[in-house]
Write a structure and sequence with these properties.
50% helix, three-stranded antiparallel beta sheet, globular, binds carboxymethyl coenzyme *A
Length: 428
Amino acid sequence: MPEKAILKLGDKTIELPVIIGTEGERGIDISRLRDETGVVTYDPSLGNTAVCKSAITFIDGEKGILRYRGIPIEQFTEKPNFMEVAWLLIFGRLPSKEELARFRDRLTDNELLHEGFRHQFQSVPVDAPPMAILSAMLSQLACFHQELLSLQDEESFEDAAARLISKVRTIAAFSYRRSLGLPFIYPDPKLRYCANFLHMMFSIPYQQYIITPEIEDALNLVFIMHADHEQNCSTSTARVVGSAKANLFASCAAAVCALWGPLHGGANVEVIEMLERIHKGGVTPEECIRQAKDKSNPFRLFGFGHRVYKNYDPRAKILKATCEKVFAKLHHKDELLDIARKLEALALKDSYFVERRLYPNVDFYSGILLRAMGIPTNVFTVCFAIGRLPGWIAQWKEQHDDPTSRILRPRQIYVGPPQGDYVPLSKR
Ligand code: CMC
């Protein structure tokens, strides 16, 4: 007998079906509630609402589990390959050798930007925020690939996905070069995804950037750790925009804007700025913890806390271990890592953080790793976006392919003034 929830509303009793997910999660299906009762549910910030069924990513926030298409995140740490993970997320299974090779070729074929497009970087101020450039430029891809605005078959979908995933790193690197007034470095078709990004960021004319395998692997891992995280703020944005049948470029550009926020992807920048403030002596770690607990102070301990994880974020665990491994191997030292460890230790024994179950999240250690690669702080959130792009694309596709999906259009409870009359300007 399928489980049902019983809702008593006035003198009415309503039976609501219970949906059970692969891992036993239960959700009360209220999709017919308003039609049958005229009543809506109230869940500001959607903390208790599943907005879709999804087969892409599984998170158990209580246990600190994250899986991509059923595969635990820890299994992607040994031989990191971001393109394989991107394909897995988007197409639902690990690619064969031929499929991966074909996808890589498509990426290589699409790594250049249209020259007209390239000139647009000159029109933005040198100090423009890279996330603003990224979202504008992703949106503009729609002008240059109008044949991909409506994706009717798998072939054109794969083409659009490959273009986005390939060009995002060219756009990211060009916006960084623009900020320094340096010449743009064209992508090198011989290089793999991450190596090519590092080359476009750091080579200079007639002097190729030397790629260290440890750095390339670490960047691969950073991208993998960010690749999808089910219905987070930016992914939900991509889904909302996509639900109106807006194109993939527009949906991903909108997701970049959401990611920019300091409570979401922008937190990786805030973490480093917080650690730097401590390092420069502006504040002690103890004072920083005190400020984060003070409800009259808007400051939060960035890189801590999560809507879903009430345990250590498994991505933070992996990135922390990777920092230590890479730093030891390259004999690299960064005092910000010591400060981060100290802050973490202080927070994890403080009753405020313990009671609220606030642990380090993915942003706490990612910036320290990106710094070690020479990536400047204002490009951190852009790196998050490059990593998250396959997730946005996968989620957009899942919704696009679902014949039952409808435009996402929440309800509200109106609490404004009751009906009134317009007063002419002369009488006000
Ligand atoms: N520092 C201090 N207090 C915190 C923090 C923090 N980082 N995070 C949560 N709290 C407190 C919060 O004030 C609230 O306290 P109270 O119950 O007394 O009102 C309680 O913990 C529950 O927090 P919440 O704001 O209701 O939690 P949320 O699920 O709405 O927000 C969050 C989640 C990630 C926005 C929040 O934890 C936060 O602002 N963290 C800092 C920013 C950050 O690191 N963001 C990156 C998130 S992970 C990657 C990503 O998704 O981009």
